[in-house]
Every structure is written in C-alpha cells, then in structure tokens.
Amino acid sequence: MKLILAEPFQSLWAGRDAFAAVEALQGKVYRELEGRRTLRTEVDGRGYFVKIHRGIGWGEIVKNLLTAKLPVLGAGQEWSAIQRLTEAGVPTMTAVAYGERGSNPAAQHSFIVTEELAPTTDLEQLTLNWVQQPPEPRLKRALIAEVAKMTGTMHRAGVNHRDCYICHFLLHTDKPVTADDFRLSLIDLHRAQVRGATPTRWRNKDLAGLYFSALNIGLTRRDKLRFLKAYFQRPLRDIVREEAVLLAWLERKADRLLARYARKYAPGAQG
C-alpha cells in the first residue's frame, strides 16, 4: 500500500482509513464511471479536485490492449507525472493526497487529490474568437512560446501527455494578463506516461494533438514556426531539415482531419 498525505488531509484523515475517507468526500461530480470518479470538493473554504480509481477489470484491460491502447490502471500515472513535471519546472497541479492499495491491477483502489487552480480559463476558451477578434500580437506570441516551452520541457523530462490539447493549458486570471506577465499550468495528466526519455512516437502523438486542437484559432505560418523554434530549441533551418518527416506528417494529418470535420458538419451531413 502507498499513502502520501499533505495538509489539510493529513490532519483531516488522521486516525482514519484514507481510502474510506476519500470515498466519503462530497462535492460536484464531473465524471462518474464504473471504475473512476472525479469531483470537486472544498475543505476549509479551499477547492480540491479528487480522482478515485476503483479498478477497470481484466475485460477492459484486455480490450484496451487488443486495440493498441494503454489502459489507465489507477492514480499512480498522474501522481508520477506531477512529480516529474514539478522537478522539471513545468507548472502543473499540486497533489496533496495520494493513495494506492491492492496488487491486482484490474481491481486496484487508488486516488489523487490536487489543489484547485482558480481562477483560470483554458486556452481553448481563450482562443474561441481569435479568428474574428485577433488578440494583441505580443500576447499571442508570448502564449505560443510558453506552450512550446512547457511541451518541450515535458517531453525532455520523459513525460508524454496522451491528451495534449490546448484545453489542458490553464491561464491564471487572478491578475491582469499581459504579454510580459502571465502564468500557464498544465493539467489532466491521468493518462500521462513517465519514462527516462519520451519515445519519438509518443512525442509526435502529443504534438499532433496540440496542433489539431489549434487548427481553427487563426495561427499563421510564422506562429507555427515560432512554436517549432521554442519547442525544439534549435535554429529553424535545422528544424525544417531534421524534422521534415514529422512536419509533413502533421500537415497530412491536419488536412485529413479538416476534411472529416467538413464532411461531418456540412449542411445536410448525418454525422
């Protein structure tokens, strides 16, 4: 069994079964599945997000593996990713409680509690109207550079996200946001993988997800080049030459995605 508690849960659950205590927490439920529950709760006026994993069963594990998907077995993946990103200097969530018990991966009981990041808005919401109402250019360039820096640092630290979309980058709004003064945090790491080094395949999947999620926010060719330069931390000439296969693949995937989107949402489309 693994159990790590920081305040306020160290005091709140003193002398109690932490696994029973976390199941008793009340609040707004964001996701309720047979094997996983996500909710927001409050303790002493502060918000926390709670993810409880109760095991997904051997059937689900086998189904995932047969379809070449890696199953999420518990909260350990998110805990490990948070620790690695924090060590690498990538702003992310702060975990204040983590527990795991049971040696059977199909029935493992685990949980993680993180501090709520608020007030914030995610970059998907922030950029919804960028095509109609372009942002201040310096702020756009600064945000692109920061997302690229965070993603590149994450990958160099041996972490791949597996849900790497702009909606999982939170912009803190507790003070006025300017090109010279803003803060982003990376969230939703329950599917993340942690290794000594990120395999190219998984790096590329993250980059593809990020690119696709930003296809319709009005980015220019120069914006994309700025991202690449900040992500790879190499001269653009070298990037274009050495990463030509990746860049061509991203463009092909983007074209196919846009074509599918157009077919699905065109007038008269049946979905």
Provide a quick synopsis of the model.
With 271 residues, the protein is α+β, with helices and mostly antiparallel strands. Helix content is 41%, strand content 20%. It has helices at residues 9-12, 18-23, 57-66, 76-88, 123-126, 137-156, 200-213, 221-232, 236-242, 244-265; strands spanning 2-5, 28-32, 36-43, 46-53, 95-101, 109-115, 120-122, 159-160, 169-172, 184-186, 193-194.
Can you list the strand order of the major beta sheet? 1-5-6-4-3-2
Name the assembly state: single chain
**Helix content estimate:** 40-55%
Number of helices: 10
Number of E-type strands: 11
Shape: globular
The SSE order reads EHHEEEHHEEEHHEEEEHHHH
Class by alpha and beta content: alpha+beta
Q: Terminal Cα separation, in Å?
A: 47 Å
Mean pLDDT across the residues is: 90
Q: What radius of gyration results from the CA coordinates?
A: 20 Å
Sheet with most strands: 6 strands, antiparallel
Q: Tell me the fraction of residues in β-strands, as a range.
A: 15-25%
CATH topology type of the largest domain: Transferase(Phosphotransferase), domain 1
Sequence stretches where pLDDT stays below 50 over 5 or more residues: none
CATH top level label of the largest domain: Mainly Alpha
Named CATH architecture of the largest domain: Orthogonal Bundle
Structure write-up:
With 271 residues, the protein is α+β, with helices and mostly antiparallel strands. It folds into two domains: 2-115, Phosphorylase Kinase, domain 1, CATH 3.30.200; 120-265, Transferase(Phosphotransferase), domain 1. 41% of the residues lie in helices and 20% in strands. It is built from ten helices and eleven strands. The strands form three sheets. It has a six-stranded antiparallel β-sheet with strand order 1-5-6-4-3-2. Strands 7-9-10 form a three-stranded antiparallel β-sheet. A hairpin with a 3-residue loop joins strand 2 and strand 3. Helix 6 (137-156) packs parallel to helix 8 and helix 7 (200-213) crosses helix 10 (244-265). The longest helix is centred in the last third of the chain and has 22 residues, at 244-265. The radius of gyration is 20 Å and the shape is globular. The model has no long low-confidence stretch (mean pLDDT 90).
